[in-house]
Design a protein that fits this description.
The structure holds 3 protein chains of 3 kinds. Chain A is α/β, with parallel strands linked by helices. In chain A, 29% of the residues lie in helices and 23% in strands. Chain A has helices at 54-61, 96-104, 123-134, 139-152, 158-161, 171-183, 201-218, 229-235, 253-258, 263-271; strands at 12-23, 26-38, 43-47, 69-79, 85-87, 106-109, 189-193, 221-226, 238-243, 246-252, 322-324, 327-329. An 8-stranded mixed sheet of chain A has the order 6-7-8-3-9-10-12-11, sandwiched between helices. A 4-stranded antiparallel sheet of chain A has the order 2-1-4-5, with helices on one face. Classes of the chains: A alpha/beta, B alpha+beta, C alpha/beta.
């Protein structure tokens, strides 16, 4: 039985989201039918390797996908503070409601802090600008709030650092400043795209702790995108595994790690070197490579690398998400009539 | 060391990869093909490419286009206005026939200006045609021919598409022939800048240290000298008695004196950023000498940028030569270049009475410079991996 | 019997910065400071550290891409006399670079995008053995097969390959001259998790087949534990702990090593350590006197702040700490 109950309504419901890139070489189906739910005060980790579409999916939520990509289908239902649901996928680019939701309701932090901190403006000013954009307060109040946020994210001497430029801070500090900016308007949902990948392990641990603390304090929903299984195990409550633009398995973090249902998840967990386990054995690697995005295999996209490939079934049609174990998996193995041990 | 004849026990994950391609990989283009594709999408640049090709074609095969011999004067048609090309001839009975022709000119007294000016003479019909016989020339300096692409059917007729100058010389033909000098100065100047620029810029960027310091200060010194007085000074040093060809080359050198500094700086910047790239380090570790690393790895790496920069430098050279000749300190008549043509339009009276002397060469210069600039922009965007 | 292939003694790499045309440099950055260790033939020697630890600089010093400002590095080829690399003849280096090769971190920037595979991998063979044309193509084909790539890829450009394949091209390039020692500078760090496993397996297979010695520079402790026999932990330019892998993970002795091991997230939700004590944030400075870790060490004393710690030996491990073995 799932150990954690989810009584509240989801903050974000993504249904059948599809984002395609129309390039000179063909159509790249970066996100091809994703269903996800994000709940308040819970961390959903999106686990996947490069090319699985997790970053594009996150950017689709906030509608910041660059040309030649665009959302071609699906809905992104956001439930705001008053309980009203809006479909973010249907808004026009640059519409006012979208801009209000961005930053105020849904905030995003990135792998590279320099991508959201402008290099020639002091960080304090950048945070104050964000605050003034979304909240009603005077400049002086905004400055105070900004300094408070800097202190809250653990930057020492926040009043001094308010006047600092991004290049004067170390990587970890910049990431904290970015988090301060993202949270300055107390958003209800935080999307973090590989927030600690570029950081040292010691700094990473602190940033993850910080995000967890702030999640509890502000009762935010957190969608954390990563490829690092350790990070997922540390912070996630719910996990969605993505491969080639689709969610292949969903569940709570314990089920995913202890009882993975999809062959990809299983293979991934086995192929990662772990500390403390017998050394120098061969790592059971997943064979083959991720197919080229322009050459998607028919049927199940993982079939070219799957040890449980069933000819005639797996290459014919795409597997639907089915209940499997304590969660759900998109795999024909779990369908009645085709189940194999 | 022993030969590699050890058979490796294949790892299952890699063997399968060799057997893979059940899902075939799409054919991917090499780096140059990708750039060409990106370039073609920039429509203005693509069109400009053909304009530039046409202009250089004009430079090489100019004689085919001209309608008159270059120096041929016509004392009966000084400052003749441009003759339009008409398609239909009106007959006495009101009907019109199709006939490609131009209407001749006759002198008439203009009562307003109190002088004689040319007006169109509807009775003088000069039939025009393609591949007509005209004055003889040597194509590319080798092949004797006398056919011209377009011109009067009767070789004795005179047609002035862009009008005539003070001595009755056909502006159109002179512009076409001037293309050769003006565009080639651009090219030669750019090649000279290229050689100096890459050498000094490369040394500066690759070795750094005190030699970099010296070269950069030299560049700054040169750039801080006001250009026109510098050119004037250098041009004044050209002995008057020199044959036109020599003056031509010296003018080219003068014009490229400043040009190389910009290129050197760019090249230096590229070298500095490339020096620490992994693939450059790998090349050194493979045993390549410095010279090989520079020419086999670094230069090809930014060659696309250099091509773009060069294409953007050519119009500057053209404008430089034009300005110098216009001021009278560059090329001199009887050399025909766009600049020397413009020189004849130097006083107000001429401009008012015969504006085509200014407009015709001026427009051609503008078109050439614009086309080269668009082309260079397109090349630069195509070479930039970050542009869409 | 320990057959040493690489002997590093007192290696220094100091950068003077802040100088100008007429000014003297203001600060000295001690990227690598007084480092000594041995690498034995046939082993995989790991160098672990975070950013700023100097591990990449150390790798480049060994390769002599950077010229160390002090110390010595002796390389002993199979059956040959040791050769001093530091301060040696730059021309001789080209011969050394056939025996010691490097695999780079970034599959994107380590391959010249304008060269075809045959040139990328075979360039060193052109120089060292003068191979051309058909002979070169044959040699490169063999290399490609050994890293699991098809012969048909000879004429392709790097942009046709995935990250994992590109890294294999880099490995093929490193193998081309039959080297004895390979410096793998974060060779798997930029790869996807599932590709890492394939690549690590490949590296192990190649080591067994060709009797290679690896110096494996990385920041991922789980990977390092998997492939290395002995590990040196670096912090701000110094080796703070050097021991066998088993000993390091069983009983880390230096406080920094402990902090590092503590901070690594474990892929097991039951082992959550969210409330663990975290080590203090680095303020980026390295004091010139005393122990460099003193400002962040939970056990620091005045002795630590004032006197440079000695290298002590505890249970076969070298530890740079005043209180090694006591804490």
């Amino acid at each position: 039985m799932p150990p954690i109950q989810m009584p509240t309504e989801p903050l974000l419901e993504i249904r059948d989201l599809r984002t395609h890139f129309f390039t000179d070489d063909g159509v790249v189906k970066a996100v091809e039918g994703v269903d996800l739910d994000v709940y308040p005060n819970r961390t959903l980790c999106i686990l996947g390797e490069s090319g699985c579409g997790k970053s594009i999916m996150a950017r689709s939520i906030l509608r910041i996908v660059d040309a030649p990509g665009r959302i071609v289908d699906g809905s992104i239902l956001y439930r705001n503070a008053e309980g009203r649901t809006v479909d973010l996928a249907k808004f026009r680019h640059g519409s006012r409601e979208l801009r209000e939701i961005r930053g105020q309701d849904i905030a995003m932090i990135f792998q590279e802090p320099m991508s959201s901190l402008g290099p020639i403006q002091k960080i304090g000013k950048q945070i104050t600008e964000t605050i003034l954009l979304h909240r009603r307060m005077s400049k002086a109040e905004a400055k105070e709030t900004a300094i408070e946020m800097l202190a809250r994210v653990g930057i020492p001497k926040p009043a001094e650092r308010y006047e600092a430029y991004p290049f004067e801070l170390s990587g970890g500090m910049r990431q904290r400043a970015m988090i301060a900016m993202a949270l300055s308007c107390q958003p209800r949902l935080l999307i973090a795209d590989e927030p600690t990948t570029a950081l040292d392990v010691t700094t990473q641990a602190q940033i993850l702790d910080l995000i967890a603390d702030l999640k509890d304090e502000f009762q935010m929903g957190v969608m954390l995108i990563t490829h690092d299984l350790g990070v997922v195990a540390e912070v996630a409550e719910d996990v969605a595994v993505m491969y080639m633009g689709k969610v292949v398995e969903r569940g709570d973090v314990f089920s995913i790690f202890e009882n993975p249902q999809h062959p990809y998840t299983r293979a991934l967990l086995q192929s990662v070197p772990r500390m403390g386990i017998a050394r120098r054995d061969r790592l059971p690697a997943i064979r083959g490579m991720v197919p080229h995005p322009l050459a998607r295999p028919s049927g199940c996209t993982f079939r070219t690398r799957c040890d449980y490939f069933m000819p005639g079934i797996c290459d014919k049609s795409e597997p639907p998400m089915i209940r499997a174990g304590d969660g759900e998996a998109a795999c024909f193995l779990h369908m009645e009539g085709t189940a194999r041990d | 060391m022993s030969e590699i004849n050890v058979t490796l026990t294949r790892t299952p994950d890699i063997t399968d990869e060799i057997a893979e391609d059940s899902v075939a990989m799409p054919a991917l283009l090499g780096p140059w093909a990708l750039m060409w594709r990106k370039f073609r999408r920039h429509r203005v640049a693509y069109v400009s490419l053909w304009v530039v090709v046409f202009i250089y074609g004009m430079a090489m095969f100019g004689e085919v286009l001209t309608t008159t011999n270059l120096e041929e004067t016509n004392v009966r048609a000084p400052f003749a206005p441009p003759m339009g090309i008409d398609l239909f001839v009106e007959n006495a009975d009101g009907t019109s026939n199709f006939l490609l022709h131009a209407k001749g000119l006759k002198l008439e007294l203009n009562r307003v200006e109190m002088r004689r000016t040319f007006v169109q003479d509807p009775e003088k019909i000069i039939p025009l045609g393609f591949f007509v016989k005209g004055h003889p020339y040597k194509l590319l300096g080798l092949i004797p021919m006398d056919r011209h692409l377009f011109g009067p059917k009767n070789p004795r007729d005179r047609v002035y598409f862009f009008g005539a100058d003070r001595l009755g010389r056909d502006i159109f033909s002179r512009i076409v022939m001037g293309t050769r000098i003006s565009m080639s100065i651009g090219l030669v100047g750019v090649v000279v800048s290229l050689v100096i620029g890459i050498s000094l810029g490369g040394i500066s960027g690759y070795y750094g240290g005190w030699i970099d310091n010296i070269i950069q200060r030299l560049i700054e010194f040169i750039r801080s000298i006001p250009t026109i007085p510098l050119w004037m000074g250098l041009a004044a040093a050209i002995p008057l008695g020199w044959p036109p060809l020599y003056t031509y080359f010296v003018v080219t050198l003068i014009v490229s004196m400043i040009g190389w500094t910009g290129l050197a700086r760019e090249v230096r910047g590229k070298f500095l950023s490339l020096r620490n790239e992994d693939f450059i380090v790998a090349a050194r570790l493979d045993g390549l000498t410095d010279w090989e690393v520079i020419w086999k790895h670094m230069v090809p790496s930014f060659s696309s940028h250099i091509i773009a920069s060069l294409t953007l430098a050519v119009p500057l050279m053209i404008l430089a030569e034009t300005s110098l000749s216009f001021l009278g300190i560059g090329l001199q008549p009887p050399i025909v270049s766009w600049g020397t043509l413009l020189k004849e339009a130097q006083n107000i009276r001429t401009i008012i009475q015969a504006p085509w002397l200014l407009i015709a060469p001026g427009s051609v210069i503008v078109i050439a410079v614009l086309a080269l600039n668009f082309l260079g922009d397109g090349l630069r965007d195509a070479a930039d991996p970050n542009a869409h | 019997m320990t057959d040493t292939i690489l002997e590093v003694r007192g290696l220094d790499m100091h950068f003077a910065i802040g100088g100008g045309l007429f000014r003297k440099p203001t600060t000295v950055v001690r990227a690598v400071d007084d480092i000594s260790f041995d690498v034995y033939r046939g082993e995989t020697f790991g160098i672990v550290g975070e950013s700023g630890s100097g591990k990449t600089t150390l790798g480049r010093c060994i390769m002599q891409i950077l010229e160390p400002t002090g110390g010595s590095i002796h390389f002993t080829g199979q059956g040959r006399e040791p050769v001093q690399l530091v301060g040696g003849d730059r021309k001789k280096l080209r011969t050394i670079w056939r025996d010691i090769r490097m695999v780079f971190q970034d599959p994107q920037s380590s391959l010249n995008p304008r060269l075809r595979v045959i040139d990328l991998v075979g360039q060193c063979l052109r120089k060292s053995e003068g191979l051309k044309g058909q002979k070169l193509a044959e040699r490169v084909s063999v290399l490609l097969e050994q890293v699991g790539l098809r012969k048909e890829f000879l004429l392709r450009f790097p942009n046709a390959f995935s990250g994992g394949q590109r890294q294999r091209l880099g490995i093929a390039r490193a193998l081309a001259t039959n080297p004895q020692l390979i410096i793998a500078d974060e060779a798997v760090s930029a790869l996807d998790v599932s590709i890492q496993a394939q690549t690590l397996n490949l590296l192990q297979d190649l080591q067994d087949a060709f009797d290679l010695t690896y110096v494996f520079i990385a920041h991922d402790l789980a990977v390092v534990e998997h492939v290395c026999d002995r590990i040196a932990v670096m912090y701000l330019g110094q080796v703070v702990e050097l021991s066998t892998t088993d000993e390091l993970f069983r009983a880390p002795k230096h406080p920094y090593t402990r902090a590092l091991l503590d901070a690594v997230p474990i892929p097991d939700p039951r082992a959550r350590r969210g409330t663990r004590k975290r080590v203090a944030v680095s303020d980026g400075s390295a004091s010139a006197i005393g122990c460099r870790f003193a400002s962040r060490c939970p056990h620091a004393t005045d002795l630590c702040r004032e006197t440079t710690p000695p290298k002590r030996s505890v249970n076969g491990a070298d530890v740079l700490c005043h209180y090694a073995g006591e804490i």
